Amino acid sequence: MNHKTLIGVDLGGTNVRSGLVNGQDIIKIDSDRISSKSEEKTVIDQVINSISKVINPEVAAIGIGVPGILDTKEGIVYDVQNIPSWKAVPLRSILEHHFQVPVFMNNDANCFAAGESQYGKGKGKNNLTGLILGTGVAAGLLCDGHLYEGRNCGAGEFGMIPYLDHNYEFYCSGRFFSHFHQSSGEEVSKRAAAGDPAALQIFQEYGKHLSWLIKTILYAVDPEMIVLGGSVSKSFPFFEATLWAELQDFPYQPVVKNIQITASEIDHIPILGAAALYFNQKT
User: Fold this and answer.
1) pLDDT for 12
2) Spatial CB neighbours of 23, under 8 Å, sequence gap ≥ 6
3) What does the pLDDT look like over 166-191, one tens digit per residue?
4) Which residues contact 136 (CB under 8 A, 6 or more apart)?
5) 39: how many CB neighbours lie within 10 A of its CB?
6) CA dist 119 → 26, 151, 275 (Å)
7) Class of domain 124-263
8) How far from chain centre, in Å, is Cα 283?
9) Mean pLDDT, the chain, integer
């Protein structure tokens, strides 16, 4: 393991969290609210302030995960969720000029995949899919040891693929529980943990929908491992058996036999995932 000292930044729509990462450990974290409705420079200054609280002279690079559209080659962030003033922000050049270290950027799903590959259950895997199941559905793809972003950093948007009368995100994110069962995934999970048959049945239904998304991923990229993240992944034990049962009709059974499907167990994965962008450089 490379014991570089790095900074990972998780930029959300309302908060920014910066972590100082050394080896496998986060040794310092700063978490601040951002003035999301403020002008562009105000929010940039708040990001810089958060990083400044954890940086030290040993830091080799800064990685930042962004919930929006970005040009990773030019380092430009477009239309960040819940920050209306960020239309086209040259964030990489701003941060590199200020801190005088290399800066790497990507979307939050790609950061998740990179983090699992470097710090989590995906260590040693060259082909991995990090599948986030939360308020939405998104995936990061690790192919031949490196993130595959596509031309516009849009690869892995499996949630937007049409499915039944809507798309996979509608049936495989937290929206499934609120739309079809008028409850939150967290509430259904609590009921399932208490042995409520109705709640357990809801997760069986969810597992069947998720199996079709998993099959789509197997057809498209055939990874070694799929790591589930996001709030719904915490309930994996309640739909794991149904998911595997539904995969038994997949036409290429060697693929099913060899695939590993697991849930992330890493704390602060957005910070570690952002830091892991440093290791994604192509040489």
Assistant:
1) 84
2) 1, 3
3) 999 999 999 999 999 999 999 999 99
4) 159, 169, 173
5) 11
6) 11, 27, 10
7) alpha beta
8) 24
9) 93
Longest dimension (CA), the chain: 57
pTM, full prediction: 0.93
3-state secondary structure string across the chain: CCCCEEEEEEECCCEEEEEEEECCEEEEEEEEECCCCCCHHHHHHHHHHHHHCCCCCCEEEEEEEECCEEECCCCEEECCCCCCCCCCECHHHHHHHHHCCCEEEEEHHHHHHHHHHHHCCCCCCCCEEEEEECCCEEEEEEECCEECCCCCCCCCCHHHCEECCEEHHHHHCCHHHHHHHCCCHHHHHHHHHCCCHHHHHHHHHHHHHHHHHHHHHHHHHCCCEEEEECHHHHHHHHHHHHHHHHHHHCCCHHHHHHCEEEECCCCCHHHHHHHHHHHHCCC
Q: Determine the CATH number of domain 5-111+269-280.
A: 3.30.420.40
- Start-to-end Cα distance in the chain: 17
> Within 13 A of 143's CA, how many CA atoms are on the CB side?
12
Domain boundaries, the chain: 5-111+269-280, 124-263
Fold match between domain 5-111+269-280 and domain 124-263:
yes
Cα separation, 17 vs 277, in Å, equals 16
Distance (Å, whole) CA 170 – CA 155 = 19
- For residue range 56-83, list pLDDT tens digits in order: 999 999 999 998 888 999 999 998 878 8
Q: Which range has the worst mean pLDDT, 78-92, 94-108, 164-178?
A: 78-92
Task: Name the residue among 205, 218, 149 with its Cα closest to residue 172.
Answer: 205
